[in-house]
């Protein structure tokens, strides 16, 4: 009897629930996108170097002239998270359009700088805004998703920290630190701490965030 060997294409493996394997992270970049940045680190406590890709859409329709009469690429960016195993990589999570372009118009300010950090098996999505401060989202892989478990931000006036906010979505607690030293020059701030409980029914999933710019942490 002749044996029949059935080879399924990548998309059928995905439909059938199989975890597609590939040796190269770049092979997980969807059509119409390009690699923007790449990061490595352990995200699932197995000691292997997982991979996080920041991808960017490559649509020429989104290359526009800004208010300074300069051509800029306003294509949005996304994220692809890959777990490393003995056979290569497998898709862990994805969100193709959750980040705005690095060339967005910041008005009187420059647009914040986005970067990724992998530390202690957690995924940190960090926005740095120079002398104005920063904000950072902490995700952890659980329940088969990367879920938002923490948020931290700092509002600065040059070298002086005016307020700091930290939210723990697991304990449902929020800490706000406000500088009360009006004559602070940086490093000599005096903070008043205020703790509050927050209300949240379900943790936010990375894959379900439509736009990080519209995530309003002041709701908590």
Automatic annotation (TrEMBL):
Keywords: Signal
Leader sequence segment: 1-20
Protein name, as recorded: Lipoprotein
């Amino acid at each position: 009897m002749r044996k029949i060997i059935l080879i399924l294409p990548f998309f059928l493996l995905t439909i059938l629930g199989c975890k597609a394997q590939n040796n190269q992270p770049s092979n997980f970049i969807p059509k119409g996108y390009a690699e923007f940045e790449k990061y490595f680190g352990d995200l699932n406590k197995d000691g292997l170097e997982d991979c996080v890709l920041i991808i960017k859409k490559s649509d020429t329709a989104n290359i526009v002239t800004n208010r300074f009469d300069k051509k800029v690429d306003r294509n949005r960016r996304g994220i692809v998270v890959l777990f490393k195993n003995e056979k290569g990589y497998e898709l862990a999570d994805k969100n193709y359009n959750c980040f705005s372009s690095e060339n967005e118009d910041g008005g009187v300010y420059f647009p914040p700088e986005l970067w990724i950090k992998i530390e202690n098996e957690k995924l940190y999505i960090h926005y740095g805004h120079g002398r104005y401060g920063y904000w950072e989202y902490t995700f952890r892989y659980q329940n088969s998703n990367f879920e938002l478990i923490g948020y931290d931000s700092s509002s600065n006036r040059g070298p002086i920290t005016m307020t700091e906010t930290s939210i723990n979505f697991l304990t449902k607690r929020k800490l706000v630190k406000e500088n009360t030293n009006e004559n602070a020059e940086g490093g000599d701030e005096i903070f008043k701490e205020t703790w509050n409980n927050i209300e949240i029914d379900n943790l936010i999933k990375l894959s379900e965030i439509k736009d990080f710019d519209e995530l309003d942490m002041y709701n908590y």
